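User: Could you check the structure of this?
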Amino acid sequence: MIKQMFAAIVIVAFSTAAFAGDTQPVPKKIDAEGFQEVLAQTGDVYIAGQPSLAGLERMAKNGVKTVVSFRTPREMNNRDIVPFDEAAKASELGMRYVNIPLGGDKHPYSPEALAAFAKVMEGAEGKTLIHCTVAWRASHMWAAYLTKYKGMDINEAAAHGRAANMGIQPIEGLLGGEISYSRPEKP
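Assistant: Sure, the predicted C-alpha cells are below.
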C-alpha cells in the first residue's frame, strides 16, 4: 500500500512538473558560422555570440524578426569590436533591433533588465536572436527569463543556460561541480 501511494505521488509530481510553465527544448548548439564562438537554438530562439554581417543575413533568411543585443554601448560603438552598425543592418534586413546592455556599473544585471527582456520576448513575432559577445550574458538572461517568466525550475533553467554557453559558475568550479539553486518563495 505504501509503495502504491509513493508511486502515485511520484507520478503526480512528474506530471505536474512536465506541465508547469511553458515547455522549452534544451538549446542545441548548431553551426556557428557568422557568429563569434556560439550559436544555439531552442524553439524559435537563437542564443549567440556576436553576429557578423553574414550572421545577421543568415538569421534574416532563417525567419528571425527580432534581434536582442546585450552588448554595452561602449562595445557597440567600438568598431574594432563590432565593425558595422548592427541596428541599421538589422533594420535593413527587416528585423526589429533591441539593445538591453548588460555589464559594468552603468548596466548591471538587474530585475529591470530582465523585465525589459521579458517585455521584448512577449511582444516578439517570429523567431528571435539574442546575443552578446560569446553568448555568456545571453545564456544567463535566457535562464533567468525561463525561471521568472516561464515558471521553469531554476536548476532546469540553469541547464538550459549551460547548454547554450553559460558555462559553470566560478563557485561551481571552485567546488568541483554543478550546484543546485533555490529561489525564495514569492511573498
